[in-house]
Amino acid sequence: MHKFSPLLAVARELGASEAALIDPGEIVIRDELARMCLEPRCNGYDRSMSCPPHVGGPEAMRKWCREYHRALVFLVEVPREVAMSFERNEVLGLIHEIASGVEKAAQAMGADRARAFAGGSCKELFCSQYAECRVLHEGKPCRNPHLARPSMSGHGVDVAKLQALAGWTLPDPKEKPKEGSMAHFTGLILLA
Ligand code: SF4
Predict the structure, then answer these.
(1) Chunked in runs of 10, what are the mean pLDDT values of the chain (192 residues)?
(2) Domain edges within the chain
(3) Ligand 1 atom with the shortest distance to the CA of 143
(4) Is 126's C-beta closer than 6 angstroms to any atom of ligand 1?
(5) Coil, strand, or helix at residue 29?
(6) Are 99 and 16 in contact (CB under 8 A)?
(7) Among 55, 92, 123, 138, which is best to mutate for testing ligand 1, by the most ligand atoms less than 8 A from CB?
């Protein structure tokens, strides 16, 4: 059993449908995916410390993937209707919650460099009632340090390839969905 295997149970207890340990050296990082945050411009671009241009981007992620020994990938599966509804933000909030929870558990095990990534803008998910991100605009600490984590897409992570690396065969989101189909959301924690 790998020393980080107990974290798989932590991810599931926090709400993940699946979790797997992978080799971070195999994570596919594509510059063009990170560029899509700017063009077409995402609503989260330049609105928080978790999204471009305020994150390290693909270059930093490549460096971390060389430095870290293991990565935990998790999946949250929900009915497609939920993913397309107002409940989508709740699911994205859960991705941040699981990612930060696993990061904290890893740190408690001694992996103090554990680094979690989620998806979706933390400004929209956790600070929508405020005009601005407190870190960016006031130079003060984040209002939600226990939850908000940087976006994988802002770092160019190919999420479909990440899911395949974890051994999950999932429907192509570009294909027309079948009735009753499920949607999948993913988070990542680098471990060292
Ligand atoms: S203060 Fe709010 S918007 Fe800024 S990084 Fe923290 S959670 Fe995100």
Answers:
(1) 96 98 98 96 95 97 98 97 94 98 98 97 97 97 98 96 95 78 96 96
(2) 6-22+68-151+158-172+186-191
(3) 1
(4) yes
(5) strand
(6) no
(7) 123
